[in-house]
Task: inverse folding
């Protein structure tokens, strides 16, 4: 059968179970799925006709999943840095968005972002931006898995003018994507301070009906709590609780302002946390207490945020930063060990996105979203421990081959579904436009 | 004249003055020195016979300087992680060192480290390890600039048995290196808790006489202060002050336990601080208040520490981490802007090492320690701001060509003075040995 092949790396890191490295094992891929994982010496007997793809010096890991992105903002990478949040937004990002955001911007920006993510071993991302239909179409075209957010915000934008219109356009996008195998949707209300009670209630109802996650910036910076108390007489968590939003559909992004009892509450309600360490540091928003959340069993995933506040979409860098920062912030060098950090970049985001039956680990029956990482490189010699090298020493430039649903999307420096020269030309054109 | 060439990148980032990017400029290198920096359109007239090396899509920056390394420990990269400092040292690092450290370990380990550093745009490093003669010889051989520490520690090691022997062996190394153009020395007393008053006094005298820096781990973790008070009745800074060590020869490494008045004191004495953000986070040692030191005019340089606690020797990653962490820790998003972070990886370490008359910036008369960084890559499109891309988005894998003293040491993936297959074989051999 022509669609079956055995991938034979030096090591398989299945992620589930956590902290396991299989030496001399092969992963058999049949079409879009993982059919078997077996010791290499059983290949001849159990899969005699299956062609073998040797991945010498490589570890095979599940595709990384970026649990919080604004992919189109790749075009604004480094447009403005080293500024306080509000000056950054009001003087730079928002004016640029107001002038330029539309289908062309979103298509070119999300294409650039997907190129960067795929080349760096990220096979799936959870997006929050305008024109999710365009992002979805681009993802389908380049063969990348995505969850596109249906934006809701009480401000008019090029995408929609009223809350009602955000809902109607969002529902249309959702409907149109029901048959798309790689792309699904989530509600993406912007933040408590930009979404009305009515809209939140509608999101709660619809999310349940449609069975989709709710992707929300929450407790990103200190001012948010005071603002909510003044406007609603309540802490944002109390307000969302009263509106029925605190449940296991919620992907709460940032969460840098958590008390111990807030953490208990997050755990009790099964809320997923999207941790964006680089962005939180860069904007000096605050620090997410990842070690404390992890200790309570909260499902924490790692995300890059947009390239305008990171300034990369590099999940290897983000994973390393998360692991280092958790130790430094908690004062506990045993916090967030390598294996857990890898889970937070794979199976945990899959759980938050309700995709863990399909991706996030190398398990029989799951989709073949896989990454071969070359550890046989100067930067990761010697390989005393595979997981340690993957998290603490490896960079995305050691990614050798990437598959999404069994399809090769990146191989030895080449993106198979994208034209790099065209990407460059578009980026240069946007560089020129955004200057003015 | 055959040893002159004009390097013509898209951008020259001289570092001195800070925050400057020169478009369309050429750097003329004559032998080991920078002879001129001039607008590209004056090349024909002012340097008509000089061959031009076009570096399209590249920024030319000064070679990065790693102000704190234990290079030979590259062989212990990832040997043990996610452990408290003392268990990490006592159960893993020290036993391995006791068994294996000698000339072969130091040669192979520092060679691997230098390969990694050069390929990543680091042209000079400040080392603290045993057998500095071996590290020095290796640096000279691979054409890398280095300052090797003359170790002093009140414990017997394979290098020396008594404090006296540390001094006599160290002085021999210093003497032997006086005529070596690329390598110089510093005293490298291990830490206040492992060096006697007598040894510190001798270091102060000799360092002045020999005109070399003093490279010391200082205030790395909280326990150090209490320990010093119990043993010496003094805070480590008071003890070192009384011994005459607090002056502008001192490179104080880590400095994670600083009060506001300690910072004033550091500034007053002109002490240089070596900031190692990844290592401090990973071992949960504490946080160096870089923004506060920088505000006081303290000369702060960035270092990787050893690969056993980082686990890379990646100055691009370290620079980015320093810039991000300074904002997060200080709560000020304007702290450590990109240009300052780049200074902390170039001219500031040069100052600490007393090498700023020779390296650390692209200035006429300085040594041609240069790095061409390809910004024309997916990961750094679009290039709205060169400095931002270099610090926040760029990775060491975008390094295209590296020169030390005018010699090409790395070019398009190839280390010109090192045999990569031999490096691999040695790393694999040490992987096997260190397992037991």
Result:
């Amino acid at each position: 059968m022509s669609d079956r092949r055995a991938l034979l790396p030096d090591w398989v890191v299945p992620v589930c179970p956590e902290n396991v490295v299989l030496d001399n094992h092969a992963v058999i891929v049949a079409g879009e799925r993982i059919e078997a994982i077996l010791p290499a010496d059983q290949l001849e007997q159990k899969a005699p006709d299956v062609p073998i793809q040797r991945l010498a010096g490589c570890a095979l890991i599940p595709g990384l999943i970026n649990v919080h992105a604004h992919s189109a903002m790749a075009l604004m990478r480094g447009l403005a840095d080293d500024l306080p949040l509000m000056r950054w937004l009001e003087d730079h990002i928002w004016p640029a968005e107001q002038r330029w955001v539309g289908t062309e911007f979103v298509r070119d920006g999300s294409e650039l972002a997907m190129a960067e993510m795929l080349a760096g071993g990220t096979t799936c991302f959870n997006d929050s931006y305008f024109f999710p239909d365009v992002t979805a179409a681009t993802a389908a075209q380049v063969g990348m898995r995505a969850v596109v957010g249906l934006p809701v915000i009480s401000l008019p934008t090029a995408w929609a003018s009223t809350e009602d219109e955000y809902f109607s356009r969002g529902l249309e996008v959702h409907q149109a994507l029901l048959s798309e195998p790689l792309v699904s949707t989530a509600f993406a209300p912007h933040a408590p301070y930009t979404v009305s009670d009515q809209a939140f209630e509608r999101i709660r109802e619809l999310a349940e009906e449609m069975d989709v996650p709710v992707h929300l910036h929450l407790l990103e910076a200190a001012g948010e709590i005071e603002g909510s108390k003044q406007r609603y007489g309540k802490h944002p968590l109390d307000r969302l609780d009263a509106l029925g939003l605190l449940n296991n559909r919620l992907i709460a992004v940032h969460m840098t302002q958590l008390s111990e009892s807030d953490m208990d509450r997050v755990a009790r309600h099964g809320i997923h946390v999207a941790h964006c360490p680089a962005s939180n540091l860069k904007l000096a928003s605050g620090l997410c207490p990842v070690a404390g959340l992890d200790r309570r069993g909260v499902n924490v995933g790692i995300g890059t945020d947009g390239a305008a506040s990171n300034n990369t979409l590099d999940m290897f860098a983000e994973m390393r930063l998360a692991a280092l920062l958790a130790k430094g912030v908690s004062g506990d060098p045993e916090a967030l060990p390598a294996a857990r950090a890898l889970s937070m970049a794979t199976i945990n985001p899959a759980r938050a996105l309700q995709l863990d039956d399909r991706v996030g680990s190398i398990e029989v029956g799951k989709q073949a979203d896989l990454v071969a990482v070359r550890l046989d490189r100067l930067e990761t010699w010697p390989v005393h421990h595979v997981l340690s090298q993957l998290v603490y020493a490896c960079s995305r430039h050691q990614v050798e081959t990437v598959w999404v649903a069994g399809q090769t999307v990146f191989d030895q420096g080449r993106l198979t579904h994208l034209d790099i020269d065209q990407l460059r030309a578009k980026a240069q054109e946007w560089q020129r436009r955004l200057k003015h």
User: Anything to note?
Assistant: Chain B has a mean pLDDT of 97. The first strand of chain B starts at residue 4 and ends at 12. Chain B touches chain A through 68 residues (CB under 8 Å). Chain B is about 40% helix and 20% strand.
